[in-house]
Fold this protein.
Amino acid sequence: MVTAFILIKAGTSEQLNFAKIAKEEIAKIKGVVKVYGVFGRYDLLAQTEASTLDELSSVIIDKIRAISGVLSTESLIVFE
């Protein structure tokens, strides 16, 4: 099992609750365990689990980055 924390920068929107909408969409993705709103350089933090690095890569690139308004991600892979 591969566990990772994904730091997510979200863009601005005319809607004031844009980060909330992105958070809700990310939370629906299979492999995402929990999503947190954070203050600082990043807007969201997603805890993810996948069977392999390839599966994790797919979650990040094909799912999280595909959400409208997600500008960038940074992955922190946990080794236990």
Observations:
- The two ends are 10 Å apart (CA to CA).
